Fold this protein.
Amino acid sequence: MKPTGIKAPLILIVLVLAVTALGLAFLIFRQYAPKSSSTKADQNAVGTPSAAPSTDEQKVLNPPVKGSEADQKQFADLITKLAKDSTTLNISGCRPQPLVMRIKKGATFKLNNTDSQAHVLTVDKDHTYTVSPSASVDVVADFGRGPGIYGFGCDKSGGPVGMLLVTE
């Protein structure tokens, strides 16, 4: 004899588990899906914090490591092309504006945190700057090696989030 009374509860349990799995998958998707409240115009604006980085901007954040001399020159040319003259570097969500800032050696620039949480920007082990929420600090563009390209990280990013082009 087959126990037929077990089929209905078993099917019900399988359905409940399937619905629960779908619900969890939806919640996980919502948790990790990109959140965007920006307009289409914001998404297409180059250099705004809400814009997706262009191909050139992506290359800036991935400098050649011990590349050929040609690779190094190509990278330096790209930095020069994208550099914006400024005395203010805005940080929001560890995304700098401008992405590449040109500043004269020894000049002071304002590091402005527009977020509601503190950020730590690191040029190297000797040049780390903590900026409180909605505050700014003054930074002197002299990082010990003279004019050149200096990448900086944010909140232990593990890589550059922007570049400083220090000139004579």
Q: What stands out?
A: The chain has two domains: 1-34, 55-167.
